[in-house]
Design a protein that fits this description.
Blueprint lengths: L5 H6 L4 H8 L8 E5 L6 E6 L3 H19 L3 H17 L1 H12 L3 H20 L6 E4 L6 E9 L2 E5 L5 H14 L3 E5 L6 H13 L7 E3 L4 H9 L3 E7 L2 H13 L3 E5 L4 E5 L5 H13 L9 E7 H17 L18 H16 L3 E4 L3 E2 L2 E2 L2 E4 L6 H4 L6 E7 L2 H8 L4 E2 L1 E5 L3 H8 L6 E4 L15 E2 L11 H6 E9 L10
Parallel strand pairs: 5-6, 5-8, 6-7, 8-9, 10-11, 10-18, 11-16, 15-16, 18-19
Antiparallel strand pairs: 1-2, 3-4, 4-21, 12-15, 13-14, 17-20
The chain binds nicotinamide-adenine-dinucleotide.
The site of nicotinamide-adenine-dinucleotide has 28 residues, from helix 9 and helix 10.
Length: about 500
Amino acid sequence: MVATSADIKDAAGGADWLDLFLADWRAGSGQAIEYREPATGILLGKFQHSTAADVEQACARAAAAQPAWAETSYQERAAILSSAAEIYERHRPEFGTWTQRETGAVHNKMHHEQNFTYQEILNAATLPSQSHGSLMPSAQKDRLSMVRRVPVGVVGAITPWNSPSVLGMRVVAPALALGNAVVLKPDPQTPVSGGALFAAVFREAGLPEGLLQIVLGGADAGEALVTDSNVALVSFTGSTAAGRRVGQLAGGLLKRAVLELGGNNAFVVLDDADLAAAASAGAFASFQFQGQVCFAVGRHIVQRSVADEYVKMLAEKARRLRLGDPYREQVELGPIVNAKQLARVDDIVRRSLDGGARLVEGGTHEGLFYRPTVLADVTTNLPAWTDEIFGPVAPVVTFGSDDEAVALANSSEYGLAGAVYSRSISRGLAIANRIRAGMVHVNDQTINDEAIIPFGGFGLSGNGGRFGGQANLETFTEWQWLTVRDEPKSFPHPY
Ligand code: NAD
């Protein structure tokens, strides 16, 4: 990676710590690729991507380092994680700068991501000291029988660009804490906030050599990581399309893959809801970070008698939001991450309008800046309803009965998050109980996370793997049955 340019120094806010780290960052040996800040087009850096051979070497280094790490005491691993949390906090300004410039996040989104990232490390620091098994009764006399969780070995982690630090940290921190090594491949659009900074933090925290390897690149590097024979577990966060491919590759090798994928999340507003609160939550969850959030609200399902009022409130909120460079200006929305994604968002909006949806607000863009958009009269055959948009678009569908609301909420193949607004807790809960999603909220919006809850989704949103708290133990370790006899056992003649 070539990372000592003035641009990068500027992006690092002149921070010696990060500059020093980036200056001796080991490059991949593949093609050098420039990447730019989405908000301005300013060159951020030039990275040599990792070749398949680089990935293989990184996995071999990780595999060589892992057994000794698994044998370290729980105190030693917890101490390194605690130290990493402190270092992360101390260097928040540099982290924030890179996150904002690489992803186009507004300050508030970046700040929340940093809080969650810090919490992920703190929570991981508690994992080494938890019970990792139990003593079992045994049918055989004089035998000690126990079941315990053991590290998987090397975890191959593939992460997307949209929340690079938290989505990386929720894998790296617990996996390391539980005695594994990690090879992390961030998205090529976030090589620093999704990759280099992890290496810098854990190096300063004293993590032994080899245990955390960062490889850079796109699908080729990702597939090399998934199929590497040293990688025992694949943790993939990203689109359902790429996740399907990763799942197929891992399945062919009989390798476990934890897939955290896309969403098209339902937000149900009942006629007895606090409409102002619902509209503010709905607007936040569709427009925050330009809608580029896996658990953003993608479908507003609103009871017919309050729908006009709700749509009006949503449109007023959308109109007030300011767009611009989130790193240098006071704005609520930044750019869409790249031209390809912008064209996709616009295409979904255009085809939905052609299909009969009504444009209430937005629907225009300047460069990569897409106006927050409200679509009414949406029908369930339109792409704004069926597809994960990953842009600042709020499609509204109306319903009559509560049964109809549930059927609409469950009519997506995704099942990541859902929410219901109602002043009646029992009515809200009755609907929440019937929503098929991994995370459901009553009187709150869908962009909700805590490091101790088992984050994940149903259907096309994932394959059942979970991150967070106790779920980390299941995800990053395997069961092992261990028995011990005091007297060596022999078997009857003729054996
Ligand atoms: P993406 O699938 O294009 O890329 C994600 C990562 O996968 C990147 O590192 C990319 O280089 C890599 N990749 C792409 N093709 C690959 C392949 N064939 N083999 C191995 N690796 C490959 O996703 P994106 O556009 O960067 O991110 C947005 C998507 O991620 C959305 O669908 C969003 O909902 C989803 N997401 C899900 C969660 C979750 O926890 N469920 C969180 C954030 C984002």
